[in-house]
Amino acid sequence: MSKLDLFWNLEYEICFGIDIREKLQSFIENNYKYRKVIFITDETVSSLYSKFSEFNFLHQKKPYKYIIKAGETSKSISEYYKIIRFLASINADRHDLIIAFGGGVVGDLSGFVASTYMRGIDYIQVPTTLLSMVDSSIGSKTAINTEDGKNLIGTFYNPKAVFINLKFLDTLSDKEFRNGLVEVIKSAIIRDKELSDLLMSKNVYEKDILEIVIRKSISIKKKIVECDLKESGERQLLNFGHTIGHAIEKLSGFSVSHGYAVAIGMAMFSKAYYKLGVISKETYLQIINILKKYQLPVSCEYNEEQIYQEVLKDKKNNGDKINLVYPKEIGCAAIDCISRKDLKNIISVACR
Ligand SMILES: NC(=O)c1ccc[n+]([C@@H]2O[C@H](COP(=O)([O-])OP(=O)(O)OC[C@H]3O[C@@H](n4cnc5c(N)ncnc54)[C@H](O)[C@@H]3O)[C@@H](O)[C@H]2O)c1
Protein backbone atom coordinates (compact mmCIF):
# COMPACT_ATOMS: atom_id res chain seq x y z
CA MET A 1 0.00 0.00 0.00
CA SER A 2 1.23 3.42 -0.78
CA LYS A 3 0.63 6.16 1.68
CA LEU A 4 0.23 9.82 0.96
CA ASP A 5 2.41 11.95 3.10
CA LEU A 6 -0.52 13.78 4.47
CA PHE A 7 -0.09 14.79 8.03
CA TRP A 8 -1.40 18.18 8.89
CA ASN A 9 -1.53 20.44 11.87
CA LEU A 10 -4.52 18.60 13.29
CA GLU A 11 -2.80 15.29 12.70
CA TYR A 12 -4.89 12.88 10.88
CA GLU A 13 -3.56 10.52 8.39
CA ILE A 14 -4.87 9.81 4.93
CA CYS A 15 -3.95 6.37 3.69
CA PHE A 16 -4.34 5.73 0.03
CA GLY A 17 -3.94 2.46 -1.82
CA ILE A 18 -5.57 -0.69 -3.07
CA ASP A 19 -5.00 -2.69 0.07
CA ILE A 20 -5.87 -0.91 3.28
CA ARG A 21 -6.33 -3.94 5.51
CA GLU A 22 -2.95 -3.98 7.24
CA LYS A 23 -3.07 -0.29 8.02
CA LEU A 24 -6.67 -0.48 9.24
CA GLN A 25 -5.91 -3.42 11.47
CA SER A 26 -2.92 -1.84 13.12
CA PHE A 27 -4.86 1.39 13.53
CA ILE A 28 -7.87 -0.23 15.20
CA GLU A 29 -6.15 -2.99 17.18
CA ASN A 30 -2.72 -1.64 18.05
CA ASN A 31 -2.70 2.14 17.88
CA TYR A 32 -5.97 2.83 19.59
CA LYS A 33 -7.19 -0.53 20.96
CA TYR A 34 -10.83 0.33 20.38
CA ARG A 35 -13.37 -1.81 22.22
CA LYS A 36 -16.43 -1.71 20.00
CA VAL A 37 -16.49 -0.87 16.33
CA ILE A 38 -19.65 0.56 14.78
CA PHE A 39 -20.05 0.78 11.02
CA ILE A 40 -22.36 3.41 9.64
CA THR A 41 -23.06 2.70 6.00
CA ASP A 42 -25.87 2.90 3.44
CA GLU A 43 -27.99 0.17 1.88
CA THR A 44 -26.12 0.17 -1.42
CA VAL A 45 -22.64 -0.01 0.05
CA SER A 46 -23.75 -2.54 2.64
CA SER A 47 -25.15 -4.92 0.03
CA LEU A 48 -22.17 -4.51 -2.31
CA TYR A 49 -19.51 -4.86 0.37
CA SER A 50 -21.02 -6.91 3.18
CA LYS A 51 -18.14 -9.36 2.89
CA PHE A 52 -15.43 -6.82 2.24
CA SER A 53 -12.25 -8.72 3.03
CA GLU A 54 -10.34 -5.71 4.32
CA PHE A 55 -12.61 -5.68 7.37
CA ASN A 56 -12.39 -9.45 8.04
CA PHE A 57 -10.07 -9.04 10.96
CA LEU A 58 -12.88 -7.25 12.81
CA HIS A 59 -15.04 -10.37 13.03
CA GLN A 60 -13.77 -11.26 16.49
CA LYS A 61 -15.00 -7.89 17.68
CA LYS A 62 -18.49 -8.60 16.29
CA PRO A 63 -18.79 -5.12 14.82
CA TYR A 64 -22.11 -3.32 14.94
CA LYS A 65 -23.64 -2.04 11.76
CA TYR A 66 -26.09 0.82 11.31
CA ILE A 67 -27.49 1.03 7.79
CA ILE A 68 -29.12 4.17 6.42
CA LYS A 69 -31.09 4.62 3.21
CA ALA A 70 -28.85 5.70 0.34
CA GLY A 71 -29.17 9.35 -0.62
CA GLU A 72 -29.26 12.90 0.63
CA THR A 73 -32.53 12.52 2.58
CA SER A 74 -30.64 10.50 5.18
CA LYS A 75 -28.63 13.57 6.21
CA SER A 76 -31.55 14.51 8.45
CA ILE A 77 -32.18 15.31 12.09
CA SER A 78 -34.43 12.25 12.41
CA GLU A 79 -31.76 9.87 11.06
CA TYR A 80 -29.15 11.56 13.24
CA TYR A 81 -31.32 11.05 16.31
CA LYS A 82 -32.00 7.40 15.45
CA ILE A 83 -28.27 6.74 15.28
CA ILE A 84 -27.68 8.47 18.61
CA ARG A 85 -30.41 6.25 20.16
CA PHE A 86 -28.78 3.21 18.57
CA LEU A 87 -25.38 4.11 20.01
CA ALA A 88 -26.92 4.59 23.44
CA SER A 89 -28.70 1.23 23.18
CA ILE A 90 -25.39 -0.60 22.66
CA ASN A 91 -23.66 1.45 25.37
CA ALA A 92 -21.19 2.96 22.94
CA ASP A 93 -18.70 5.26 24.62
CA ARG A 94 -15.42 7.05 24.07
CA HIS A 95 -13.47 3.79 23.92
CA ASP A 96 -15.32 2.89 20.74
CA LEU A 97 -14.89 3.74 17.09
CA ILE A 98 -17.35 4.71 14.36
CA ILE A 99 -16.38 3.74 10.83
CA ALA A 100 -18.10 5.90 8.21
CA PHE A 101 -18.21 3.48 5.29
CA GLY A 102 -19.77 5.04 2.21
CA GLY A 103 -20.05 8.22 0.18
CA GLY A 104 -20.32 11.82 1.30
CA VAL A 105 -23.77 11.35 2.81
CA VAL A 106 -22.55 8.61 5.15
CA GLY A 107 -19.37 10.59 5.88
CA ASP A 108 -21.12 13.87 6.72
CA LEU A 109 -23.79 12.21 8.86
CA SER A 110 -21.42 9.85 10.69
CA GLY A 111 -18.99 12.69 11.32
CA PHE A 112 -21.74 14.78 12.86
CA VAL A 113 -22.85 11.85 15.01
CA ALA A 114 -19.25 11.21 16.11
CA SER A 115 -18.63 14.86 16.90
CA THR A 116 -21.68 15.18 19.15
CA TYR A 117 -22.32 11.78 20.76
CA MET A 118 -20.92 12.00 24.31
CA ARG A 119 -19.30 15.28 23.27
CA GLY A 120 -17.26 13.49 20.65
CA ILE A 121 -16.08 9.96 20.00
CA ASP A 122 -13.50 8.76 17.49
CA TYR A 123 -14.39 8.03 13.91
CA ILE A 124 -12.61 7.18 10.70
CA GLN A 125 -13.73 7.58 7.12
CA VAL A 126 -13.57 4.85 4.50
CA PRO A 127 -14.93 6.75 1.48
CA THR A 128 -16.44 4.73 -1.36
CA THR A 129 -17.36 7.36 -3.99
CA LEU A 130 -14.98 9.49 -5.99
CA LEU A 131 -16.53 12.62 -4.50
CA SER A 132 -16.00 11.41 -0.96
CA MET A 133 -12.41 10.35 -1.72
CA VAL A 134 -11.30 13.68 -3.16
CA ASP A 135 -13.57 16.05 -1.33
CA SER A 136 -15.96 15.28 1.51
CA SER A 137 -13.67 13.01 3.55
CA ILE A 138 -10.92 15.65 3.52
CA GLY A 139 -11.31 18.81 5.53
CA SER A 140 -13.19 17.87 8.70
CA LYS A 141 -16.61 19.25 7.83
CA THR A 142 -19.59 17.29 9.11
CA ALA A 143 -23.22 18.12 8.46
CA ILE A 144 -26.89 17.31 8.32
CA ASN A 145 -29.62 19.16 6.44
CA THR A 146 -32.82 20.85 7.60
CA GLU A 147 -35.89 22.02 5.68
CA ASP A 148 -34.23 25.43 5.57
CA GLY A 149 -31.04 24.39 3.93
CA LYS A 150 -28.34 21.91 3.10
CA ASN A 151 -25.60 21.40 5.68
CA LEU A 152 -27.25 23.94 7.99
CA ILE A 153 -26.27 21.99 11.11
CA GLY A 154 -22.73 20.76 11.37
CA THR A 155 -19.34 20.85 12.99
CA PHE A 156 -15.68 20.96 12.13
CA TYR A 157 -14.44 17.67 13.56
CA ASN A 158 -11.43 15.62 12.55
CA PRO A 159 -11.71 11.94 11.80
CA LYS A 160 -8.86 9.97 13.34
CA ALA A 161 -7.88 8.85 9.85
CA VAL A 162 -9.13 8.42 6.30
CA PHE A 163 -8.55 5.17 4.42
CA ILE A 164 -8.96 5.45 0.67
CA ASN A 165 -9.18 2.34 -1.48
CA LEU A 166 -9.65 2.79 -5.21
CA LYS A 167 -11.24 -0.67 -5.49
CA PHE A 168 -14.58 0.79 -4.40
CA LEU A 169 -14.77 2.82 -7.57
CA ASP A 170 -15.19 -0.39 -9.61
CA THR A 171 -18.84 -0.61 -8.60
CA LEU A 172 -19.65 3.09 -8.81
CA SER A 173 -22.03 4.12 -11.59
CA ASP A 174 -20.60 6.32 -14.32
CA LYS A 175 -22.99 9.10 -13.32
CA GLU A 176 -21.70 9.08 -9.74
CA PHE A 177 -18.14 8.84 -11.00
CA ARG A 178 -18.56 11.95 -13.14
CA ASN A 179 -20.30 13.66 -10.26
CA GLY A 180 -17.06 13.30 -8.28
CA LEU A 181 -14.94 14.17 -11.27
CA VAL A 182 -16.41 17.67 -11.20
CA GLU A 183 -14.67 18.33 -7.88
CA VAL A 184 -11.42 17.06 -9.40
CA ILE A 185 -11.85 19.41 -12.36
CA LYS A 186 -12.66 22.25 -9.98
CA SER A 187 -9.45 21.62 -8.02
CA ALA A 188 -7.46 21.63 -11.24
CA ILE A 189 -8.99 24.90 -12.40
CA ILE A 190 -8.46 26.72 -9.12
CA ARG A 191 -5.02 25.40 -8.26
CA ASP A 192 -3.25 23.07 -10.66
CA LYS A 193 -2.69 23.67 -14.36
CA GLU A 194 -0.72 20.44 -14.63
CA LEU A 195 -3.70 18.47 -13.36
CA SER A 196 -5.95 20.28 -15.78
CA ASP A 197 -3.62 19.40 -18.69
CA LEU A 198 -3.57 15.80 -17.52
CA LEU A 199 -7.36 15.63 -17.41
CA MET A 200 -7.49 17.07 -20.90
CA SER A 201 -4.78 14.96 -22.50
CA LYS A 202 -5.27 11.59 -20.80
CA ASN A 203 -8.12 9.26 -20.08
CA VAL A 204 -9.09 9.40 -16.44
CA TYR A 205 -10.89 6.06 -16.78
CA GLU A 206 -7.45 4.39 -16.94
CA LYS A 207 -6.53 3.15 -13.46
CA ASP A 208 -3.00 4.55 -13.32
CA ILE A 209 -4.14 7.97 -14.52
CA LEU A 210 -7.03 7.94 -12.07
CA GLU A 211 -4.68 7.19 -9.20
CA ILE A 212 -2.49 10.18 -10.07
CA VAL A 213 -5.53 12.39 -10.48
CA ILE A 214 -6.99 11.41 -7.10
CA ARG A 215 -3.68 11.90 -5.32
CA LYS A 216 -3.28 15.35 -6.81
CA SER A 217 -6.84 16.35 -5.95
CA ILE A 218 -6.47 15.24 -2.34
CA SER A 219 -3.23 17.10 -2.09
CA ILE A 220 -4.80 20.33 -3.40
CA LYS A 221 -7.71 20.11 -0.98
CA LYS A 222 -5.40 19.28 1.89
CA LYS A 223 -3.14 22.27 1.21
CA ILE A 224 -6.04 24.69 0.96
CA VAL A 225 -7.75 23.36 4.10
CA GLU A 226 -4.50 23.45 6.06
CA CYS A 227 -4.21 27.19 5.49
CA ASP A 228 -7.80 27.93 6.38
CA LEU A 229 -9.60 25.29 8.42
CA LYS A 230 -12.77 27.29 9.03
CA GLU A 231 -13.30 28.79 5.60
CA SER A 232 -12.55 32.43 6.29
CA GLY A 233 -10.19 32.96 3.37
CA GLU A 234 -8.33 30.58 1.09
CA ARG A 235 -10.78 27.73 1.58
CA GLN A 236 -13.47 29.76 -0.15
CA LEU A 237 -11.67 28.99 -3.42
CA LEU A 238 -13.13 25.50 -3.12
CA ASN A 239 -16.54 27.09 -3.64
CA PHE A 240 -15.82 27.78 -7.32
CA GLY A 241 -19.02 26.94 -9.19
CA HIS A 242 -20.89 26.26 -5.97
CA THR A 243 -22.76 29.58 -5.67
CA ILE A 244 -24.79 28.98 -8.83
CA GLY A 245 -24.46 25.22 -8.33
CA HIS A 246 -26.33 25.24 -5.03
CA ALA A 247 -29.02 27.44 -6.56
CA ILE A 248 -29.49 25.00 -9.46
CA GLU A 249 -29.56 22.00 -7.13
CA LYS A 250 -32.33 23.62 -5.12
CA LEU A 251 -34.30 24.91 -8.13
CA SER A 252 -34.29 21.40 -9.58
CA GLY A 253 -35.58 19.95 -6.31
CA PHE A 254 -32.22 18.11 -6.14
CA SER A 255 -32.90 16.17 -9.36
CA VAL A 256 -29.74 17.82 -10.74
CA SER A 257 -26.94 16.24 -8.73
CA HIS A 258 -24.45 18.33 -6.78
CA GLY A 259 -21.56 17.65 -9.15
CA TYR A 260 -23.51 18.41 -12.29
CA ALA A 261 -24.88 21.61 -10.74
CA VAL A 262 -21.35 22.71 -9.83
CA ALA A 263 -20.20 21.98 -13.39
CA ILE A 264 -22.94 24.31 -14.67
CA GLY A 265 -21.97 26.89 -12.06
CA MET A 266 -18.30 26.82 -13.11
CA ALA A 267 -19.24 27.12 -16.78
CA MET A 268 -21.71 29.96 -16.23
CA PHE A 269 -19.46 32.10 -14.04
CA SER A 270 -16.53 31.56 -16.39
CA LYS A 271 -18.72 32.68 -19.28
CA ALA A 272 -19.80 35.82 -17.39
CA TYR A 273 -16.25 36.75 -16.38
CA TYR A 274 -15.10 36.21 -19.96
CA LYS A 275 -17.95 38.29 -21.43
CA LEU A 276 -17.24 41.03 -18.89
CA GLY A 277 -13.62 41.12 -20.02
CA VAL A 278 -12.12 39.82 -16.76
CA ILE A 279 -10.70 36.54 -18.06
CA SER A 280 -9.43 35.52 -21.48
CA LYS A 281 -11.40 33.64 -24.08
CA GLU A 282 -8.74 30.93 -23.92
CA THR A 283 -9.30 30.35 -20.19
CA TYR A 284 -13.06 30.27 -20.68
CA LEU A 285 -12.82 27.77 -23.54
CA GLN A 286 -10.39 25.55 -21.63
CA ILE A 287 -12.95 25.27 -18.84
CA ILE A 288 -15.82 24.53 -21.20
CA ASN A 289 -13.75 21.97 -23.11
CA ILE A 290 -12.69 20.04 -20.06
CA LEU A 291 -16.29 19.86 -18.81
CA LYS A 292 -17.52 18.78 -22.23
CA LYS A 293 -14.80 16.16 -22.54
CA TYR A 294 -16.31 14.42 -19.51
CA GLN A 295 -19.87 14.93 -20.76
CA LEU A 296 -20.75 17.36 -18.01
CA PRO A 297 -23.46 19.99 -18.46
CA VAL A 298 -22.48 23.62 -19.03
CA SER A 299 -25.86 25.37 -19.00
CA CYS A 300 -29.26 25.11 -17.37
CA GLU A 301 -32.91 25.82 -18.00
CA TYR A 302 -33.42 28.33 -15.17
CA ASN A 303 -33.66 32.06 -15.84
CA GLU A 304 -31.57 34.82 -14.29
CA GLU A 305 -34.24 35.93 -11.80
CA GLN A 306 -34.75 32.39 -10.47
CA ILE A 307 -31.01 31.88 -10.05
CA TYR A 308 -30.44 35.32 -8.52
CA GLN A 309 -33.18 34.86 -5.92
CA GLU A 310 -31.84 31.45 -4.97
CA VAL A 311 -28.23 32.65 -4.76
CA LEU A 312 -29.31 35.40 -2.35
CA LYS A 313 -30.45 32.72 0.10
CA ASP A 314 -26.99 31.09 0.20
CA LYS A 315 -25.76 30.76 3.78
CA LYS A 316 -22.25 31.68 2.66
CA ASN A 317 -23.26 35.24 1.76
CA ASN A 318 -21.54 37.90 3.75
CA GLY A 319 -24.23 40.49 4.55
CA ASP A 320 -24.78 42.66 1.49
CA LYS A 321 -21.62 41.36 -0.11
CA ILE A 322 -21.17 38.09 -1.92
CA ASN A 323 -17.86 36.36 -2.46
CA LEU A 324 -17.57 34.83 -5.91
CA VAL A 325 -14.71 32.63 -6.99
CA TYR A 326 -13.52 33.03 -10.56
CA PRO A 327 -10.57 31.58 -12.49
CA LYS A 328 -8.05 34.29 -13.37
CA GLU A 329 -6.42 31.60 -15.47
CA ILE A 330 -6.26 27.82 -15.30
CA GLY A 331 -4.60 26.86 -12.02
CA CYS A 332 -5.15 30.25 -10.40
CA ALA A 333 -8.50 31.33 -8.99
CA ALA A 334 -9.37 34.48 -7.09
CA ILE A 335 -12.16 35.75 -4.87
CA ASP A 336 -14.27 38.65 -6.05
CA CYS A 337 -16.25 40.40 -3.30
CA ILE A 338 -19.23 41.96 -5.04
CA SER A 339 -22.46 43.80 -4.31
CA ARG A 340 -25.93 42.36 -4.96
CA LYS A 341 -26.24 44.67 -7.96
CA ASP A 342 -23.05 43.29 -9.50
CA LEU A 343 -24.19 39.77 -8.72
CA LYS A 344 -27.40 40.37 -10.63
CA ASN A 345 -25.44 41.67 -13.58
CA ILE A 346 -23.02 38.72 -13.56
CA ILE A 347 -25.87 36.20 -13.43
CA SER A 348 -27.65 38.04 -16.21
CA VAL A 349 -24.56 37.88 -18.45
CA ALA A 350 -24.04 34.22 -17.52
CA CYS A 351 -27.60 33.36 -18.56
CA ARG A 352 -27.46 35.07 -21.96
N1 LIG B 1 -17.99 17.47 4.21
C1 LIG B 1 -17.59 18.05 3.10
O1 LIG B 1 -16.59 18.78 3.07
C2 LIG B 1 -18.36 17.79 1.83
C3 LIG B 1 -17.82 18.18 0.60
C4 LIG B 1 -18.52 17.88 -0.56
C5 LIG B 1 -19.73 17.21 -0.49
N2 LIG B 1 -20.22 16.86 0.73
C6 LIG B 1 -21.48 16.13 0.84
O2 LIG B 1 -21.31 14.85 0.24
C7 LIG B 1 -22.59 14.36 -0.17
C8 LIG B 1 -22.47 13.77 -1.55
O3 LIG B 1 -21.57 12.70 -1.50
P1 LIG B 1 -21.59 11.54 -2.61
O4 LIG B 1 -21.59 12.15 -3.95
O5 LIG B 1 -20.56 10.58 -2.24
O6 LIG B 1 -23.08 10.97 -2.44
P2 LIG B 1 -23.67 9.67 -1.72
O7 LIG B 1 -23.02 9.41 -0.44
O8 LIG B 1 -25.15 9.88 -1.72
O9 LIG B 1 -23.31 8.50 -2.74
C9 LIG B 1 -23.86 8.54 -4.03
C10 LIG B 1 -24.51 7.20 -4.39
O10 LIG B 1 -23.49 6.24 -4.62
C11 LIG B 1 -23.75 5.04 -3.86
N3 LIG B 1 -22.44 4.44 -3.60
C12 LIG B 1 -21.53 4.81 -2.66
N4 LIG B 1 -20.42 4.09 -2.81
C13 LIG B 1 -20.62 3.23 -3.83
C14 LIG B 1 -19.82 2.24 -4.47
N5 LIG B 1 -18.56 2.03 -4.09
N6 LIG B 1 -20.36 1.54 -5.48
C15 LIG B 1 -21.64 1.79 -5.89
N7 LIG B 1 -22.43 2.72 -5.36
C16 LIG B 1 -21.92 3.45 -4.33
C17 LIG B 1 -24.49 5.53 -2.66
O11 LIG B 1 -25.24 4.48 -2.10
C18 LIG B 1 -25.38 6.64 -3.26
O12 LIG B 1 -26.52 6.06 -3.84
C19 LIG B 1 -23.54 15.54 -0.09
O13 LIG B 1 -24.37 15.40 1.03
C20 LIG B 1 -22.63 16.74 0.10
O14 LIG B 1 -23.24 17.78 0.84
C21 LIG B 1 -19.56 17.13 1.88
Structure at a glance:
The chain has 352 residues and is an alpha/beta fold.
Q: What labels describe this entry?
A:
disordered N terminus; alpha/beta; binds nicotinamide-adenine-dinucleotide; 10 strands; 352 residues
Can you tell me about this structure?
With about 350 residues, the protein is an alpha/beta fold. Helix content is about 45%, strand content about 20%. The chain contains 13 helices and 10 strands. The strands form 3 sheets. The protein has a 6-stranded parallel sheet, with helices on both faces. The longest helix is centred in the middle third of the chain and has 21 residues, at about 205-225. It is globular. The chain binds nicotinamide-adenine-dinucleotide. Nicotinamide-adenine-dinucleotide (NAD) binds near residues 102, 103 and 128.
Which molecules are bound in this entry? Answer: nicotinamide-adenine-dinucleotide
Distance between the termini: 50 Å
Assembly state of the chains shown: single chain
Radius of gyration, Cα only, in angstroms?
A: 20 Å
Largest sheet report: 6 strands, parallel
SSE pattern = EHEHEHEHEHEEEHHHHHHHEEH
Shape: globular
Task: Output the number of helix runs.
Answer: 13
The mean pLDDT is: 92
Please state how the strands of the largest beta sheet are arranged side by side.
Answer: 1-8-5-4-2-3
Secondary structure blueprint with pairings:
Layout: E1 13-17, H1 21-31, E2 37-42, H2 43-48, E3 64-68, H3 77-89, E4 97-102, H4 104-116, E5 122-127, H5 130-136, E6 141-146, E7 149-156, E8 161-165, H6 174-191, H7 193-201, H8 207-227, H9 242-251, H10 258-275, H11 281-293, H12 304-312, E9 322-329, E10 332-338, H13 340-351
Parallel strand pairs: 1-8, 2-3, 2-4, 4-5, 5-8
Antiparallel strand pairs: 6-7, 9-10
Helix pairs in contact: 5-6, 5-8, 6-7, 6-8, 6-10, 9-10, 9-12, 10-11, 10-13, 12-13
Bound molecules: nicotinamide-adenine-dinucleotide.
